[in-house]
Design a protein that fits this description.
two-stranded antiparallel sheet; alpha+beta; 15 strands; 5-stranded mixed beta sheet; 23 helices
Length: 557
C-alpha cells in the first residue's frame, strides 16, 4: 500500500501507558458509585436475552416477550443484535444476576471505551488523555455506562476498530488490518448503528491510500453482518436491519413530529449531552463568534415564545411561560451549535484526512439521530462524544500546562456526575416503588396486574406480578391494576370498569431529571431535553380495583 499525498501527523503515537492507566482509574472511580444501580429503561431486554442464551445459545431470541403491551416473539420486539446479551450470559454465569454483579461486568466495556478513545486520540491529536476523559466524562457516555445496554460496548469496539485501521494503513500492517476488520464486523453485532464505522474506515483509506488490498479486507465485516442476517432469517424469518429501519420510519410517521423539530431536539441533546464542552469555549473562539452563537440560541428561544409551538417544544404551560425549560433550551442549543461550528472551523483550518474523518463521524451521528433514528435521544448521539472531544483538542493544539485541563475536566465531571446521579435516583425510585407495591399488595388474594415497561417491569415480574397483554388479558372483578405515570402505558380505565384504589408516591432524591414529561426531560427518548437541572418530580403509581370483569382487546378503551 502506497501513500497518496499523505504525511503522518507528528502527534501520532504519543500515548503512554501511564496516561492510559490514569484514564482507566478515573473511569472506574466515576462508575463505582453506581454499581448498585437498579435495572433501568431497556436493560430488561438485554437481560432476558442473556437468560435465553444460557438456556440455548443458538436460539438467542427464541422466546416471547410482552414489552409494548402485546406478547410478541422477542426477535420482533427487540431491535438490537445479541452481542451484549452473549457477554452478559457469560458474566452472569460466573458472577450471578444481582445488580452489583451485572454492573461490575459492564465496567469492562466502559474501560475498553476509554482505552479505545485514548488510543484513537493519540493518533489524531496532541492531547489524547484530555480528549478521552472529556468524552468519558460527558453525560452521553457516563449515563450510558451505568446501564447494561449495548451502546457503550458498540462505541468501544468502534474506537478500537478505527484506531487499529488507521495504524494498519500507516504501517502497512496486514495483521492490524485483519484485526481492525474483525472489530468493524463485531461493531454492528453490538448495535446496528455500529455499521457506520465501516464507511468511516473506507473514507479514511480513500483519503490516504490508493485502492488496494485494504478494500478486500473490508469484505470481512460485510461477510460477518451477512452471516448474522442469514442466521437470523433462517431462525426467525426476519432481516434485522430492515426491521430496525422499518420501526424507526413507522415511529417517526406516527409521532407527527416534523423534521425541523427533530433537528432542533437533536441539537439540544448534542449540547446537553456534551455540556462539558462549555468550559472550552473561551479558548476555542473569538468573542465575536461566541456572541454570534449566543445570538442564534437566543433567537431560537424567542421563536419558541413568539410562535407558540405545541407538543415537545411548547414554550407555555398551564402556569404560563416555562422559563426553566426555555433557559435549558437556550443553553443546550448554544452548546450544540458550538459543537457543529467547531467541526466546520476545524475542517476549514485543516483538511487533512484525520480532520475529515472526525468531522464526517460527528456530523453523520448528528444527522442519523436527528432525521433517521426513531427519535433523537442520548443513546443515538453517544458516538458523537468521541470525535467532538478529539476535535476540541486538535483546535487547542499542544498543551501548555496541566492546571487548566485539570480544572476544565473537573468542572465537566461535576455536571456529568450530577445528572448521572439523577438517573441513578430515578431507577432506584422505580425499584423502591415495586418494593412498596409488593409490601402492600403482594400477600392479598386479588391478582395484581400492571402496565409499564423498563426496569419497572423487570422488578414487578420478579415480585410475582403479571403484565397486561392488551390483546389477550381478562381482568376479573376484584383484580388490582398498577399503572405508572412516568412510564409507557396504553390504557386508562373508565369509571364503569375500575375504581382508583390508591396512589403511591416514590420520591426521586436528585436535583435533576433525566425522564420527566412535565419538565421536558427525556434522555432515553424524545426529550426534547436530555435532562433538566432543578427539583425532581416524584414517581407516581396509580392502583385500580376492577369492578366489572372484561377482556382486553382491540375495542378496549
Amino acid at each position: 500500500m502506497k501513500d497518496r499525498d499523505h504525511q503522518p501527523r507528528e502527534t501520532r503515537g504519543r500515548g503512554s501507558n501511564r496516561e492510559a492507566l490514569f484514564a482507566v482509574l478515573v473511569t472506574v472511580a466515576c462508575l463505582l458509585p453506581f454499581i448498585g444501580k437498579a435495572f433501568h429503561i431497556d436493560d430488561p431486554m438485554f437481560l432476558w436475552a442473556a437468560e435465553q442464551i444460557q438456556r440455548d445459545p443458538l436460539d438467542f431470541y427464541g422466546f416471547d416477550v410482552n414489552w409494548e403491551g402485546l406478547t410478541r416473539p422477542m426477535a420482533e420486539a427487540n431491535k438490537n443484535p445479541p452481542l451484549v446479551s452473549f457477554y452478559l450470559a457469560a458474566t452472569t454465569a460466573l458472577l450471578g444476576w444481582s445488580e452489583v454483579a451485572v454492573h461490575l461486568a459492564m465496567l469492562l466495556p466502559a474501560v475498553l471505551l476509554v482505552l479505545g478513545s485514548y488510543r484513537l486520540a493519540a493518533l489524531l491529536c496532541e492531547r489524547p488523555l484530555e480528549a478521552a476523559l472529556l468524552g468519558m466524562l460527558s453525560p452521553l457516555i457516563l449515563i450510558s455506562s451505568t446501564t447494561v445496554m449495548s451502546d457503550v460496548l458498540m462505541l468501544a469496539i468502534w474506537c478500537w476498530g478505527l484506531g487499529l485501521w488507521i495504524e494498519a494503513l500507516d504501517r502497512s500492517s496486514l495483521r492490524r488490518l485483519l484485526a481492525a476488520a474483525l472489530l468493524l464486523g463485531l461493531c454492528p453485532l453490538a448495535k446496528y448503528f455500529g455499521f457506520a464505522a465501516l464507511p468511516l474506515a473506507v473514507l479514511y483509506a480513500l483519503l490516504t491510500r490508493r485502492v488496494g488490498a485494504w478494500l478486500w479486507v473490508l469484505s470481512i465485516p460485510l461477510l460477518m453482518l451477512g452471516a448474522y442476517h442469514l442466521l437470523t432469517y433462517q431462525a426467525y424469518g426476519l432481516l434485522p436491519l430492515a426491521e430496525a429501519a422499518e420501526y424507526a420510519s413507522r415511529f417517526r410517521s406516527l409521532s407527527g413530529v416534523r423534521l425541523p423539530e427533530t433537528g432542533l431536539v437533536a441539537l439540544l441533546f448534542l449540547g446537553g449531552g456534551l455540556i462539558g464542552t462549555a468550559f472550552y469555549i473561551p479558548s476555542l473562539y473569538s468573542p465575536r463568534v461566541i456572541a454570534l452563537e449566543a445570538g442564534a440560541a437566543l433567537l431560537a428561544v424567542s421563536a419558541l415564545v413568539l410562535l407558540e409551538p405545541t407538543g415537545l417544544l411548547a414554550a407555555r404551560g398551564d402556569q404560563g411561560l416555562r422559563w426553566g425549560f426555555l433557559l435549558h433550551v437556550g443553553l443546550f442549543g448554544f452548546l450544540g451549535l458550538n459543537v457543529l461550528v467547531l467541526a466546520a472551523a476545524v475542517l476549514r483550518e485543516w483538511r487533512d484526512p484525520a480532520t475529515v474523518l472526525l468531522c464526517c463521524w460527528l456530523l453523520g451521528v448528528f444527522v442519523f439521530a436527528a432525521f433517521l433514528n426513531w427519535t433523537p435521544n442520548g443513546r443515538a448521539l453517544l458516538p458523537a462524544a468521541v470525535p467532538a472531544s478529539i476535535l476540541i483538542m486538535r483546535r487547542l493544539g499542544h498543551p501548555s500546562g496541566v492546571r487548566a485541563p485539570a480544572l476544565r475536566l473537573l468542572a465537566a465531571s461535576v455536571l456529568a456526575f450530577w445528572v448521572t446521579v439523577a438517573d441513578h435516583a430515578l431507577a432506584g425510585a422505580q425499584r423502591d416503588a415495586v418494593d412498596e407495591i409488593a409490601l402492600q399488595f403482594g400477600d392479598r388474594e386479588e391478582r395484581v396486574w400492571f402496565q409499564g415497561s423498563w426496569g419497572f417491569q423487570w422488578y414487578m415480574e420478579h415480585a410475582g406480578f403479571t403484565k397486561i397483554d392488551h390483546a389477550a388479558t381478562t381482568l376479573s372483578a376484584g383484580d388490582l391494576v398498577v399503572i405508572p405515570y412516568n412510564n409507557p402505558r396504553w390504557m386508562n380505565f373508565p369509571p364503569e370498569l375500575a375504581e382508583k384504589l390508591t396512589v403511591l408516591r416514590a420520591p426521586v432524591a436528585a436535583w435533576a431529571s433525566t425522564k420527566s414529561a412535565p419538565l421536558g426531560a427525556g434522555f432515553y427518548a424524545r426529550g426534547p431535553l436530555p435532562f433538566v437541572f432543578g427539583p425532581s418530580d416524584p414517581e407516581w403509581y396509580f392502583v385500580y380495583r376492577v369492578i366489572q370483569s372484561f377482556r382486553l382487546g382491540p375495542q378496549t378503551p
